[in-house]
């Protein structure tokens, strides 16, 4: 079974019908389910996704997330060491481009030996990770 890291951008696109990437996200998720892929994410991505859903769509969207999405995920909980490395990377980058959630995701992907990420922002590709779906 292939393991795949899932970013907030993919979760949000899959859940929100009027997101520009909704169709591509749903098609990708359907394909991944058929492949029986293991969907891996981090506790920071879960927190970021829930905060976004709550802010934009309300607590009912969070209930849907908890009931429909979260049970099918492998969640890697960010510990003090991953947090420390991610924060060091963020500070060393000197920029605003990548968030702490992004840097912690990069750490988790490396630590877990995951080859691909399901994302719609360019952060993963910019850091050299294979991203699906491929950009047109």
**CATH uppermost class:** Alpha Beta
Order of H and E elements: EHHEHHEHHEHE
Across the major sheet, the strand order is 3-2-1-4-5
What class do helices, strands and sheet pairing give?
alpha/beta
Distance between the termini: 27 Å
Q: CATH homologous superfamily, by name?
A: 5'-nuclease
Query: How much of the polypeptide forms β-strand, as a percent range?
Result: 5-15%
CATH architecture: 3-Layer(aba) Sandwich
The CATH topology assignment is: Rossmann fold
- Helical fraction: 55-70%
Number of strands: 5
- Mean pLDDT across all amino acids: 94
Could you say how many structural domains there are in total? 1
Radius of gyration: 14 Å
| Largest β sheet strand count, sense and barrel closure | 5 strands, parallel
Name the shape in a single word: globular
Oligomer state of the chains in this structure: single chain
Unreliable stretches: none
Q: What is the tally of helical segments? A: 7
